[in-house]
From TrEMBL, chains A, B, C, D:
Keyword Transport (UniProt): no
EC annotation from Swiss-Prot or TrEMBL: 5.1.3.4
Catalytic activity: L-ribulose 5-phosphate = D-xylulose 5-phosphate
Homology family: Belongs to the aldolase class II family. AraD/FucA subfamily.
Pfam families referenced in this protein's UniProt entry, alphabetically: Aldolase_II (PF00596)
Cofactor: Zn(2+)
Record's keyword annotation contains Zinc: yes
Database matches in InterPro entries: Aldolase_class_II_sugar_metab, Aldolase_II/adducin_N, Aldolase_II/adducin_N_sf
Domain Class II aldolase/adducin N-terminal: 8-198
Organism: Flectobacillus roseus
NCBIfam families the UniProt entry points to: PRK08193.1
The protein's name in its UniProt record: L-ribulose-5-phosphate 4-epimerase
Keywords, alphabetical: Metal-binding, Zinc
Length: 233, 233, 233, 233
């Protein structure tokens, strides 16, 4: 099989979604990129995880054209392609309809940074990109979804290297990382942070954000140049 | 065994309910229809899923008379019969007391359409049929439950082909589809959409509905004549 | 082993609690009575379910004196004894600290009857017995807990045959039934009904109770003299 | 292997965290102390539970210097060291980011004592230590986290023997006990009590605390000199 190791990376990452409780039926997809060949592997559209096979994974180029594979790729493929094309540093992308992340998306609100669980992963609010304009929706919708993520990051001055997650208003989350596996990790962290922020505001609707020193302390101890979290590898 | 394949379809679909977390004890039932013979198969009343056997499944006609089987059918059988008799396009029906769908039923409210998870499956609010009149309740209750679903769909101008789910006020959900399996799928989607809508309103009680262009875009990309979701089969 | 079948009934019913998600660690106990010998079997105090053995079950009389067994019985034993002594029709009792039932107990409120899931099991609000007086607490506390349940049922005009569950304010639920197994069933139903009522009021804080005709219809179709739910055995 | 039994106690206790649903990925750590040798064993930093091996456990002294082991210890190690150094009666410490405990931490509120589930374990509100000062955060952060716990206990007049849990504002819980296993037990109890208190206030925002007689009755029957809960061993 051509692109076997890329397909394997994509397949393994996709199979993490049901294990982590992030998907119902087929409501999610993960892709993995091979930068040396400028292609990415993605889940086929509408195939239940329990029936997904390695050879079903579809290989695409950055313009969302099929390079290899017999099945139709995820209907969200153009969004993945746009992100790979414009953000050279990412190696994998995950899209889910996980419950709490979707609830914040539907509410149309950024997730405020309330604690160190959030700050361990990013030091800013998790952005909710505004709903697409009618022109974007009626045009090349999934391609424009990628563009709306760029618009949001430009408007808020965010870097995709420091903020590896976004909500699309009325839709749900996209997350990414240096590998497909890490993009799934980000999807699980986002869902948990979304749940914690929800509960926090139910307990105290006037909860202020975490203060700057603590927010940056936790981000830096894990991601800064003098980071001391983990095994340094 | 007569009606074996119909019983099997019904049995398999019923056994999905506990796996999907949609039932506690015996609080649910699924039926499957054979249009060529004008009969449907349904779960027997009050039998726990762990003890349910293929031969326990009861075969009924559209007037809710037993055609084959030794056990008493589900107490909700007349509602199923009414739906099969009047809606020729459906092949299976599911009734559950799943938690979030029941909560909306008890609150007596339609589930507003807030996002694409909802719009991927139907492009309108999920209706809550008003509680039955005293005459209906004290008359042929389960038969009238079916009629109340028709009343609700007529009042709101809904099509059972585009809206495959309904809530009964103070009771719970009924869902349907082209097969019994698809009616179970609809029951699981409804429960998740009900949960997401609940959380959305807890986060932002003034959340507006999803706008028309996005609502229709998602419905059409999965169900329209130019649908491109799934493998086209 | 003496009292072997009674111990088995008690043991099996206790082991259902963790399977149904109704207990954390040792926070629950089930007892089973043998009316012919005027004794009941109960879980020993503080023994984790994973280590519980058949021979650990303790046999007690209705005055809460040990009849057989080497271990110390549940600290709630006198409450069980009081219920068996005064309510001759019950065969088993379950006490848990299940999450939603405890939340209602802590809030000190009866659980309003909002839907048919509730009405299928009892046609009235689930009562919350007021917190015990200081004299009762500082006296024979667990014995008086039984008495407070009787006080509550007397004040509200309830019958233990039609209402097989109660909340103790600031504490948690007790449930009962014709067998130990059925008392566990009632504990699971109570937890689910408590959760549904909670969610219903979060969605619509002004939700009215289910109307009388529907409430009685569902109770009667399952428990009335012309009941047609289940297999009639 | 040196310190084998200490490593085993630490390893076994750590492995309880995912089983009890208290951690996502690596968001938690447990330590176990050997008072006779004045060392403690702790989880290495950033190692997923599924890959954790006995020999990965790191042995530290009370000044948070590595005594034995090849891996980098948990980034929270200095907080553990401070607690062991100052509180001689504790044998194990657990830190998690469990969902409901974090929500209360983020809201910055003590968990009020509403019922007997709480009072069975401690007879006071569970304290939330205020967020550290900027000087503490920018200084020796994890060491100062331990100090902030002492400040909180001093301010509120609490004893670590009667209150085996604390929340750190904007962060999450630390719990302890006579053994590592008991500190994990406390972490699970805290999460459940936090969830129950949350639900209680959602049902009735004006819920008063449990009254003194009942609060002390339950604490004493389990922890007092005349305790009669458990098997007395």
């Amino acid at each position: 099989m051509t692109y076997q190791s890329l397909r394997e990376e994509c397949y393994e990452a996709n199979m993490q979604l049901p294990k982590l409780g992030l998907v119902l039926f087929t409501f999610g997809n993960v892709s993995a990129v091979d930068r040396s060949q400028a292609v990415f592997a993605i889940k086929p559209s509408g195939v239940p995880y329990e029936f997904l096979k390695l050879e079903d994974i579809v290989i695409m180029d950055y313009d969302a054209k099929v390079v290899d594979g017999k099945m139709r790729p995820s209907s969200d493929t153009k969004t993945h392609a746009q992100l790979y094309k414009n953000w050279e540093g990412i190696g994998g992308i995950t899209h889910t309809h996980s419950t709490y992340a979707v609830a914040w998306s539907q509410a149309g609100l950024d997730i405020p940074i309330f604690g160190t669980t959030h700050a361990d992963h990013t030091h800013q609010d998790i952005p909710c990109a505004p709903v697409l304009t009618d022109e974007m929706i009626e045009g090349d919708y999934e391609f424009e979804t990628g563009n709306q993520i760029f618009n949001c990051f430009a408007d808020k001055g965010l870097s995709y290297k420091e903020m590896e997650m976004v909500l699309l208003q009325n839709h749900g989350p996209f997350t990414w990382g240096k590998t497909a596996e890490k993009s799934v990790y980000s999807a699980a962290v986002l869902e948990e942070v979304a749940r914690m922020a929800y509960l926090t505001l139910q307990i105290n609707p006037n909860t202020p954000r975490i203060k700057d020193t603590l927010r940056l302390k936790h981000y830096e101890r894990k991601h800064g140049k003098n980071a001391y979290y983990g095994q340094g590898c």
